[in-house]
């Protein structure tokens, strides 16, 4: 079993990671600024379903899947960056529409989050290298990795929902004549997420 010290250190590391903005957070914040809390939380849900799938692959020890992502690292992240830029263009063109802007369906918001989660291959490679560092019993690693994956997923979901809520509060504060500013900030955040994907390296 994992020692209490290792688990506590892992929780601290997970909280720090959840508080660090990346492409997933950029999508969640950008969506919440444009469309509100519900759309942001649905997007966060999609992101975290993708995250759970990645963690499950790592916990199951499917090294060949990780290797496939590694071989196609650049292709996947370029596609993800292009997708974020496309979403940014849509939001920039709709700047100022405010609360009359068409709300994405639940399926669309969820799908965006899921797509961007899988468009960042570095997260899968990171999990494959990160989780095993906290294992204390090398003789029986699978249950420990599964536990660590579950803890990571829970903290990530809470963190992403908090990002959505905070962004929605900012949207409310910028309502009215500042709506266009909020929409363009939202588009800028999405472009920033694309830049983070493009800047991502294998190390």
UniProtKB/TrEMBL annotation:
Keyword presence, Cell membrane: yes
What range does the record give for the signal peptide? 1-18
**Primary place of residence?**
membrane
One GO CC term of this entry? plasma membrane
Q: Where are the transmembrane segments?
A: 42-66, 75-94, 114-133, 145-165, 185-201
One matching Pfam family = LysE
User: Which segments does the entry list as coiled coil?
Assistant: none
**Membrane topology recorded in Swiss-Prot or TrEMBL:** Multi-pass membrane protein
Recall the GO molecular function terms of this protein's record.
Answer: amino acid transmembrane transporter activity
Question: Which InterPro entries does the UniProt entry name for this protein?
Answer: LeuE-type
- Asked if the record carries the keyword Cell membrane, the reply is yes
Sorted UniProt keywords: Cell membrane, Membrane, Signal, Transmembrane, Transmembrane helix
Name of the protein: Lysine exporter protein (LYSE/YGGA)
